[in-house]
Design a protein that fits this description.
alpha+beta, Alpha-Beta Plaits, Multidrug efflux transporter AcrB transmembrane fold, 12 helices, 2 domains
């Protein structure tokens, strides 16, 4: 089956992925991933960049970078490993970056001279930078403040837009899920956290909430229709919304991931650590996690938060009665035309969490069929664009 056909079947309800029905399984997966992320923070902690931790940085620009550049840089500083807080990395093609703990002016001058002699460059090709711990602490506080302001604004906008605080709460829980897992992956892999990484975190959260809002908008449309006609329960209408937007979410994620993946490949092979690679890494990880939470976590959370509401319970009862009635009518039609009553559609009874549309039964003269959303469609209804001009009688044709 073509991917486009699958998307069309999911949208119309001919096929259904029971995302809401299996929500406990997705909750378990998310809790496990979050637990691993928290454990990673406790075991490895974050590899904070120089901008957050403070220290000295040296950059050596050469015409030809040797393959053992890391060994030579550590030898110049007199350190065999990174136990003394020395980190060596490559920037671009011909630049070596050496980060150390805080050094005084005399020690910085000595290290710069040693690096110039080791890599056989003139002293002007060795630059040194010092970042104090107070500046790094200020950057950390500003980043956390920006995160808190972002979350508060998102909660307020969602509550106003959807006029339902439980939708805002479900979206915020999904955002927290994305943030914890992404940070946990950074702690386990040892990727450096730089100011560009913090920018990437905020970008990822914005992308994730955008995808969640698209799904929630469809959830609101379907559930409002369900409250009006009573054909689907709240969980069924929400699950249909997820199925109707899942292909779009996957396509958007793939399109967003491809250029980021290209940047990552170029960064790892040619550029080395730097702002561009830091930003690409967090975007790649975060967009994947955000796509998962938007599809498999946000809407199931909303259903769990609202399944005890009086209006939702009443809707579930109405939907169960309507679906049982339609099932009896479908059975009567399949038994023979003599016992057939009026048929509205070919839906079978379903639980409150799952709704699957089966093939419709044969229709008698004058009967109507319906879509999964309940809109009546006459069997002789025009399938093409509406308002097409009628063809004149044969006597009037030229």
């Amino acid at each position: 089956m073509k991917f486009s056909d699958l998307g069309n079947d999911l949208y119309t309800g001919r096929r259904s992925i029971p995302v809401v029905a299996k929500r406990k399984s997705f909750y378990l997966v998310s809790l496990l991933l979050m637990a691993i992320g928290v454990a990673g923070l406790g075991i490895n902690k974050l590899n904070l960049g120089l901008e957050f931790s403070g220290g000295s940085e040296f950059r050596v620009t050469t015409t030809s970078l040797p393959s053992d550049y890391e060994f030579k840089a550590r030898d110049a500083l007199g350190t065999a490993d990174d136990s003394q807080g020395v980190r060596v990395s490559k920037l671009g093609i011909n630049t070596v970056r050496v980060q150390t703990e805080r050094l005084d002016d005399a020690e910085s001058a000595r290290v710069a001279t040693e690096l110039a002699q080791t890599f056989k460059v003139i002293p002007d090709n060795v630059s040194s930078t010092f970042i104090g711990p107070s500046w790094g602490d200020s950057v950390t506080k500003q980043a956390l403040r920006a995160l808190v302001i972002f979350l508060v604004l998102v909660a307020a906008v969602l509550a106003i837009y959807f006029r339902n605080w439980k939708m805002a709460l479900a979206a915020l829980i999904a955002l927290a899920h994305d943030l914890v897992i992404t940070v946990g992956i950074y702690s386990f892999t040892g990727f450096e956290v730089s100011p560009a990484t913090m920018i990437g975190f905020l970008t990822v959260l914005g992308y994730s909430i955008y995808d969640t809002v698209v799904v929630f908008d469809k959830v609101r449309e379907n559930t409002n229709e369900a409250f009006g006609n009573g054909r689907l329960s709240f969980a069924q209408a929400a699950n249909l919304a997820v199925n109707q937007t899942i292909v779009r979410s996957i396509n958007t994620t793939v399109i967003g991931i491809l250029p980021i993946l290209a940047v990552m490949v170029v960064g790892f092979i040619f550029l080395g650590p730097g702002t561009l690679l830091d930003l690409a890494l967090v975007l790649f990880v975060g967009i994947l996690i955000g796509a998962y939470s938007s599809i498999f976590l946000a809407t199931p959370l909303l259903v769990s938060l609202r399944n005890k509401d009086a209006s939702v319970l009443e809707l579930d009862k109405r939907a169960a009665r309507a679906q049982a009635k339609r099932a009896k009518e479908a059975v009567a039609v399949s038994a023979g035309p003599s016992s057939a009553g009026p048929v509205t559609d070919g839906a079978t009874t379903a639980s409150d969490d799952e709704f699957v549309l089966t093939s419709s039964a044969p229709m008698a003269e004058g009967e109507e069929s319906s879509t999964v959303t309940g809109r009546q469609v006459h069997k002789y209804a025009q399938s093409g664009p509406r308002n097409q001009p009628k063809r004149p009688p044969k006597s009037r044709r030229s």
